[in-house]
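4.2 Preliminary Data

To establish feasibility before requesting continued support, the project team ran the inverse folding procedure on a target of 304 residues. The structure was first converted into the token representation described in Section 3, and no sequence information of any kind was made available to the design step. The complete token record follows.
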């Protein structure tokens, strides 16, 4: 591995460490002291702690050991190694962070659930962006996302609804405890999706201008693609071109500046797109062959 590659890997481990510490701190300082059970394996471990007194760190470790083997086989050895690191680090954090004398002094459970979920979402997003995972439902999310374009937040949502809902069966817990758990879940999922997919959001821009050729040349010069379609203004019956540009959302202002500097009277229409596939954007992720078609003969019609 080159020195550049070593530096990149070292940096990823540094950020994964910071993300995991932030994630665990959100639980030990804001959620667990307030009796709030969130989602994921950490939430399940917390529920077992509330119900039976099992140490959170050891339940967390045990469940992840079972899921880790599956994730390593599907995602790969690199994923497995980084996940092992994050799981061991999280286990240590759940053991050591409670020794810090400070916990939240906010008496309102709603605010603690909101702050804890937000902080946990930021931490896990940092871990995800550097190729790691805290294990548990994170592994499930990454496995599904490897083959299908589904946001991690939506996957967490399904798992967390079941896990948090089970709080109602713990003696002494009430419906409001379930609701606080769902507040944590929503804030966690929202922040996670916001960070992970925010920079990947794309927009479709339609540009109407008499100076379409000059605008198109400038957009191409900025290393962005543009398509021109023939158009006719039905009121003026004047023929021209409509420029179509698809870019990341953070490039929108740069395109708008080019258009307005070239033709202040130009008309722009901007629409947010759900998904964009192709060169420079996302790649289509096909599902895995379920296996039953492997032995099925496919008849290819001959040319007539």
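Position-by-position output of the design step:
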């Amino acid at each position: 591995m080159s020195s550049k590659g070593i530096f990149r890997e070292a940096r990823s481990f540094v950020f994964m460490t910071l993300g995991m510490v932030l994630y665990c701190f959100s639980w030990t300082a804001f959620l667990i002291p307030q009796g709030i059970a969130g989602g994921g394996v950490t939430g399940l471990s917390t529920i077992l702690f509330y119900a039976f007194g099992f140490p959170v760190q050891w339940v967390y470790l045990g469940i992840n050991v079972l899921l880790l083997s599956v994730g390593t086989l599907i995602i790969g050895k690199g994923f497995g190694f980084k996940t092992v690191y994050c799981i061991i680090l999280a286990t240590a954090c759940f053991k050591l962070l409670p020794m810090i004398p400070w916990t939240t002094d906010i008496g309102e459970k709603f605010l603690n659930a909101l702050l804890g979920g937000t902080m946990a979402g930021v931490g896990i997003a940092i871990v995800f962006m550097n190729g790691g995972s805290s294990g548990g439902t994170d592994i499930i999310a990454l496995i599904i996302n490897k083959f299908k374009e589904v946001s991690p937040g939506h996957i967490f949502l399904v798992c967390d609804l079941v896990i948090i809902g089970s709080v109602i069966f713990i003696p002494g817990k009430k419906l409001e405890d379930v609701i606080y758990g769902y507040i944590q879940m929503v804030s966690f999922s929202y922040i996670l999706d916001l960070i992970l997919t925010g920079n990947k959001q794309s927009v479709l821009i339609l540009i109407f201008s008499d100076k379409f050729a000059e605008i198109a040349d400038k957009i191409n010069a900025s290393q962005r693609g543009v398509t021109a379609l023939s158009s006719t203004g039905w009121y003026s019956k004047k023929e021209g071109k409509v420029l179509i540009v698809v870019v990341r959302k953070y490039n929108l202002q740069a395109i708008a500046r080019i258009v307005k500097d070239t033709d202040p009277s130009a008309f722009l229409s901007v629409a947010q797109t759900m998904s964009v596939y192709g060169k420079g954007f996302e790649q289509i992720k096909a599902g895995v062959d379920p296996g039953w078609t492997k032995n099925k003969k496919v008849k290819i019609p001959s040319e007539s």
